[in-house]
Amino acid sequence: MANEQCELLKLKNLGMASVNILRAVGISSYQDLQAMGAVNAYLKIKERDISVSKVMLYALQGALMDVHWNDLSPELKQQLVTESENQSTENA
């Protein structure tokens, strides 16, 4: 297993399936995820026609914050959804 993959697996909310999805869109380290941000990473996954729910968006943000996705505030979850919808509309 690659060192970067181990690093991603150590993050909260990310299991092997999530890590494989992230690697498929070019994210192979915490630094890659941090640089791209949760919303952009989520949108990149969606652009590849990989079926994921909003929980993936929350999980990515939680991984960046070292918090379980379910512990994110409702306001932050709504902000993430709104931002992803706005960016998705802009790119359409």
TrEMBL record:
InterPro entries: TfoX-like (IPR047525), TfoX_C (IPR007077). Residues 7-82 form the TfoX C-terminal domain. This is TfoX/Sxy family protein. It comes from Gilvimarinus gilvus.
